Amino acid sequence: MKTSNITRDTLILGFAIFSMYFGAGNIIFPPYLGLISSSDWKISFFAYFLADIGFATFAMFALLKVGGNVDNLTSKLGEINGKILMAIIILCIGPLIALPRTGAVTYEMLVVPYFGASTFNSLITSIIYFGLILFFTLRPTSMIEILGKVLSPLLFLSLIILIIKGIFTPIGEISQNTTNDKLFFDGLLLGYQTLDILAALAFGIIIIKTVNEKGYKDKKSISKIVGFASLLAAFGIMLVYFGLSYLGATASSLYGADIQKAVLLNKIINILFGDYGNIFLGIVVFLACFTTGAALVSVTAEYFSKLSNRKISYKILVIIVTLFSIFVTNIGLEQIISFAGPILTIIYPAAIILVVLAFFDKYIKNDNVYKFSAFTAMIFCLLEVISSSTAFNIQFLKYFPLSNEGLAWLLPALISGFIAVFIGKKAINKNI
What we know:
Blueprint: H1 3-21, H2 24-37, H3 41-65, H4 70-74, H5 79-96, H6 98-115, H7 119-137, H8 140-168, H9 183-192, H10 196-213, H11 219-250, H12 261-273, H13 277-307, H14 314-330, H15 333-358, H16 368-389, H17 410-420
């Protein structure tokens, strides 16, 4: 491969990865963190970035370390267990929650303010939105090209314009923080709760496939391109998060912490751009939702097509996923979120453990380390979900470190992983 081709493909892929990660939620959270942090906004920004895209980039490198195949990572829990775990992850961050949510946000931000809320408007909007995604994702390689060449640069440019305008014409004075002394931890926790490690594992499926289809077959080339592209995407998101956090900080003298996150963003843009603010916001929100939505459809279709040994084609699954997403967007989205949310809470620590342990794989001689630590974490998270959402108040959980932050699983997972070193030693195949 020519160096120029590698550089070009890396840049395109980097922009594509940027747009995959950067959904509507990524726009809303940083300004709010900046607002509540006021003069200490840089602390919150760094912590949030580290736990959000930092973790996600970490996961992408873990995926590369095991050969670029997510099954090589999840199979540490056992082949069947690993496939079930990944299928649940794909379904939850895809057609059950994240994907229809992109359609719902598009409707709420672009249609409701101008045409009002109605079942008819919601249905028409979702049909048009997912129809565009359907057309866009029928060829995943072309999708990556368009994301990287057109849509992602446009999204990035729009965000940079917003940030530059806010720097040169700040909407207010940054107030002094005198109350919040847990900014770093709060930022870490919010970044942790974005679940972007799961997104990275999912997006890795379509990213690796795209790189393979471009003619890069050897592990070294794939790792080089995907690795540098991931770092490029992370750098771009870091710049955006930094700018958006600053904009939020400049609003700290105007609004209180009780303001809704979406409302805060809307007010910031309206102050900066006046009558054109809603148009600008609409463009940014649509691009953020559409690029992420397209990636989620493609990932879901590719994973389940591969899982069926290509008995169900990628194109058929794209159609099924988009039709199901239209249904979920218009009927029972909140109910499905309330159902699937606890599932994500339970499986997320297992994904974190697999990602972290992947970097120490050559030192781990016992596959029970993966199983014991991951399943222990999942059991404790299940208990936390039961305790918080039912009448069963499980008292002993509160005695574990960080239990109030939803991290009671951390210490038990570490202990069980250590114990597993000495139980049923079984060599792991390292020839991945």
